[in-house]
Predict the structure.
Amino acid sequence: MKPRLLSLVIVAAAALAGCLPPPPPGIQPLRFLSINDVYVLDTLSDGSGGLARVATVRHRLAAEGPVLFTLAGDLLSPSLLSKYYHGAQMVEALNAAGLDYTTFGNHEFELDRDTLVARIKESKFRWISANCVEARGNPFPGVSAWDTVRMRNTLVGIFGLTIQEDYRSYVRCTDPDSAAHVAVDTLKKLGAQFIVALTHQSLAADEALVRREPALDLVLGGHEHERHDVLVEGRHVLKADANSRSAQFATVWGLPGAWRQAPTLVEMDSRIPLDSGVQVVVEQWNARLRRRLGPAAVVGTVKAPIDARDGVSRQMESPIGDLVTDAMRWGTRADVALLNAGTLRLDDVIPAGPLSNYTVESLFLFADDARTVTFPLTGARLRALLEHGVESAGSGAFLQVSGVRFTYDPSAAAGQRIQGALTRPDGRTIAPDDTVTVAFDVYPACESGDGYHVPEAAEACRTWQMAPRGADLLQRYIRDSLGGEISLPEAGRIGRAGS
């Protein structure tokens, strides 16, 4: 597609998506292109995504006039490359793609402090965060709370926000609502005529933010991995699909207090060519990874596609969750295996055909390698962990399971959502005073990750570095238990009342 035609198609789609006419002749709009939660450089297995495609859109829009290109957090971790190179590959590619601004995602703080500061220093783009600073209260080097940029004779103010969680000791994220109020007020005093929040928090938090801050004009968000476009009192909250499957493009025109917004979702598929400059960077990093890990090896054959998308595993029982927890239970000889869905990071559909060791490694991307510890637990405590999992449906805390079956009602009161008894695969009940051996990954079991508290795992956690890796458990299970033939596991472990 020719540069001029590509730009016109995107602009026209924006007007249609917003149910608005295009800007009147002679009006030069503000334009914003935003992505979020980008963990991989290259295209995905179905051919979608790829930072090189986003770069094509960005460069061709820029040829038509100013466009602000943002990334709403989660760029440095986790990924197979980041496991070894700690986000250096992402900074290099985003520099080449012409990124303008980013904010911290929660996964940025998985890096140690010196590595994070080094990545920020290498960035040609600006880092902004109104609520995350170093533990002693000073901003991270090279990070501002907010910034202003003049576009089309309009002073645009932009600030960053990150979800407040228990992060590593070197970082302190304050209340995002209070920080946002200060940022908006400051930007107004600086003369900003259009104010943008670049956020990495829940959709509900973004919507509430817009309602509380009447001077906030647009939210470009992340953290959820699925597309969203929510209109709140005439102002949009926009999020794209993770891993550059899509980008949100917003066209804005009018006057302060009477802005008109026309957003559209730009699908990053094969219709958009790969930017050659960025693709060179992608291929160089892929070659570097191959040199480190060696050639890909086939570990088994997938008989039917396996859905490993985050949007499935964080909401319900998933095929990949069943497969991995079966491998955990088999490899540790535990009665029950639990896995918080956020540990699974492929966020893609595994196609039928040969399964490589690279794909298996790409499922487990955190520094602890999803190591699995095993410990005894009463039936009552198992139920409590499962309750926390179902209460967290939609997030990475949702549990995938093996060796236990249950039904839950999402409309029931907290602590009472699991209905009836817990049962084993053969139908026997797990009574509250029964003791079962449970396999659980290190992050929730040993580090209270995703809000889990498991004191029963303390003894096993003392030697967690010696526990088996998730990737090794899965590869051995495929080879020795499944004979290399990977079919979809038996489902029906997690039932939902009324469905």
In short: The chain has a mean pLDDT of 92. The CA atoms of residues 327 and 477 lie 5 Å apart.
